[in-house]
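queue> pop job 88
queue> type: inverse folding (structure -> sequence)
queue> payload:
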């Protein structure tokens, strides 16, 4: 938690310099509280860096494709020339990501994660998949992660401006 706190402080200080007046001075503190509520419910003082990174990626303002690629990079394992994501790594990613809606009472059971993992690996003969297969599966908007593209679309619409007037 202390390491993540330091990283968040540095991250938000940089953001504050790049966008003066747009970053709350307590952003690092609030973000750490959110991460602790999601990944350290028992107060051990330990949060997996990979879990925290997944949450920060998911909650970032980046495009869906950029988020999906970042998830792959964090959870894939190197295999010679390519990186692959295994069933267990995908299960871990989905479990980590589902802590985000769980914090607001939208729980997903372990069976949801299992069903999603099986659907991703449906028809795959190997025990791991390449990035393109992973991205293709995520683009199909699996039910277990439907909240992610929905939230992205909602945040994207905030930037839309229509030059129309109503009577």
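queue> result:
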């Amino acid at each position: 938690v202390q390491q993540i706190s330091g990283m968040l402080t540095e991250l938000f200080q940089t953001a504050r310099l790049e966008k003066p007046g747009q970053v709350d001075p307590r952003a690092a503190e609030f973000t750490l509280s959110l991460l602790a509520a999601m990944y350290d419910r028992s107060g051990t003082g330990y949060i997996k860096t990979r879990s925290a990174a997944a949450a920060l990626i998911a909650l970032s303002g980046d495009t869906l494709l950029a988020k999906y690629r970042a998830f792959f990079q964090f959870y894939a394992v190197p295999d010679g020339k390519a990186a692959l994501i295994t069933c267990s790594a995908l299960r871990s990613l989905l479990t980590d990501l589902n802590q985000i809606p769980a914090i607001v009472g939208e729980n997903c059971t372990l069976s949801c994660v299992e069903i999603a993992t099986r659907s991703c690996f449906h028809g795959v003969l190997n025990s791991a998949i390449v990035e393109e297969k992973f991205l293709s599966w995520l683009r199909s908007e699996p039910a277990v992660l439907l909240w992610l593209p929905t939230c992205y679309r909602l945040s994207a619409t905030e930037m839309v401006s229509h030059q129309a007037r109503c009577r």
